[in-house]
Amino acid sequence: MSSTSSVIIVMGVMGSGKTTVGQRLATRLGGAFYDADDFHPDSNRAKMIAGDALTEADRKPWLATLRREIEQWLQSSEAVVLACSALRQHYRDQLTVDNHRVVFVHLTGDPARLLERVTKRTGHFMPAALLDSQLATLEPPLDALTLDIELAPEQLVDKIVQALVTKKR
C-alpha cells in the first residue's frame, strides 16, 4: 500500500472467513487487523452467545464506535483491515468515512457451505443458529469486491490485493 492510509472491511455473514482472510490480508499489506466483534459491548456479546439476534438499537452504539475507530485509523499511515459483518447497506454507509479510502470486500458462499463451516468451528462465541438471521438480514453490497469462499484464503487475498492495486491506478 502507499503512504495513504486505507481501511479494507472484509464483510459477510458468519462462516464466510472474514477473520481468516482479513488476518492474512493485513499481513500481506503490512497493516493492522481488527475484528469488529471485539468492539461490541458486553450486552451485545451476551445476546449473541444466548443465540439472540441483535436489534438495530443494539447495533447503533457498536457502529458508532466502529466509525470513530475508522476515522482514527484513516489518520495513520498504515493499511487497516477490519473483519465486520456489515450486513445492511445503512451499516456500510455509516462505516464509509471516506469513499476513496474505505473499501469493502464481500465474502459470500452457498448457505449449506456456510453452515458446514460454522458447525465445525470451535471457540467462537456466536452459535450456528444465528446464521439464518444473518442471511435474512444481508443486503448484498453493490459497490464491493465480491468473492466466493470456495477459493482458498490465499487465493482470496491475492484477488483482493490485485483489485486494490487496480483501483489505485
Topology:
Blueprint (H helix, E strand, L loop, with lengths): L5 E6 L6 H12 L2 E4 L6 H8 L6 H19 L4 E5 L5 H7 L6 E7 L2 H10 L10 H7 L7 E4 L4 H16 L1
Parallel strand pairs: 1-3, 1-4, 2-3, 4-5
What would the principal axes of the Cα set say about the shape?
A: globular
Number of strands: 5
Number of domains: 1
CATH class: Alpha Beta
* Strand arrangement across the biggest beta sheet: 2-3-1-4-5
Helix/strand/pairing category: alpha/beta
Name given to the CATH architecture: 3-Layer(aba) Sandwich
Helix fraction, binned, reads 40-55%
Query: What is the CATH third-level topology name?
Result: Rossmann fold
Q: What is the overall pLDDT average? A: 89
In N-to-C order, the SSE pattern is: EHEHHEHEHHEH
Radius of gyration: 15 Å
Notable traits:
alpha/beta; Rossmann fold; 47% helix; globular
In brief:
The chain is of the alpha/beta class and 169 residues long. It has helices spanning 18-29, 42-49, 56-74, 89-95, 111-120, 131-137, 153-168; strands spanning 6-11, 32-35, 79-83, 102-108, 145-148. It is globular and about 45 Å long.
